[in-house]
Amino acid sequence: MMSGMVIGEVARQTGVSPSTLRYYESISLIPAPDRQNGKRRYDQSIIQRLGVIRTAQRAGFTLDEVRLIFNDILSPNLESTDWHNLLQHKLIDLDNLLRNVQNMRTLLEEMMQCENPELAECIYLTGQRHQIG
């Protein structure tokens, strides 16, 4: 009797494509599953692991950072300061991203107020006011 879920079942339950599952396996983001009759057989823990990956990606973590979380940060031997450092760096990245998005929004709003019919001229003038380029 075969146990575990085949790749298609995992894909249906999680919304993660089979090719993505194979890719995650190839980069050691998920462990290689057991095989029965040449088919991958995943245990139920894969559902939670894929949920963690999806949540981390939505929070802005790269796949390399997610792998670090799984392989190092969730290791029972790791000091809590190590994952705090990763989170602190991610917060700094997010602060920089927010600042850049706000600057872009301000520039776009100012460009919309530009009365010059030439878009290039509006971009140039707005950039000059903000010392861009």
What's this model, at a glance?
The chain is mainly alpha-helical. The protein has helices at residues 7-14, 18-26, 45-58, 63-73, 80-113, 119-129, and strands at 34-36, 39-41. The protein has two domains: 1-78, Multidrug-efflux Transporter Regulator, Chain: A, Domain 2 (Orthogonal Bundle); 79-133.
In words, what does this structure look like?
- The protein is mainly alpha-helical.
- It has 2 domains: 1-78, Orthogonal Bundle (Multidrug-efflux Transporter Regulator, Chain: A, Domain 2), CATH 1.10.1660; 79-133.
- 65% of the residues lie in helices and 5% in strands.
- It has 6 helices and 2 strands; from the N terminus they run H-H-E-E-H-H-H-H.
- The chain has helices spanning 7-14, 18-26, 45-58, 63-73, 80-113, 119-129, and strands at residues 34-36, 39-41.
- Strands 1-2 form a two-stranded antiparallel ribbon.
- The radius of gyration is 23 Å and the shape is elongated.
Write the layout of secondary structure elements.
Layout: H1 7-14, H2 18-26, E1 34-36, E2 39-41, H3 45-58, H4 63-73, H5 80-113, H6 119-129
Antiparallel strand pairs: 1-2
Number of contiguous helices: 6
Q: Determine the CATH topology of the largest domain.
A: Multidrug-efflux Transporter Regulator, Chain: A, Domain 2
Strand order of the largest sheet: 1-2
Q: Rg to the nearest angstrom?
A: 23 Å
Mean of pLDDT: 84
Q: Could you describe the largest sheet, including whether it forms a barrel?
A: 2 strands, antiparallel
Subunit organisation of the chains: single chain
Q: SS-based structural class?
A: mainly alpha
Order of helices and strands: HHEEHHHH
Q: What's the CATH C level of the largest domain?
A: Mainly Alpha
CATH architecture of the largest domain: Orthogonal Bundle
Number of E-state strands: 2
Parts with pLDDT < 50 across at least 5 consecutive residues: none
Morphology: elongated
Head-to-tail CA distance between termini: 67 Å
The count of domains is: 2
Percent in helix: 55-70%
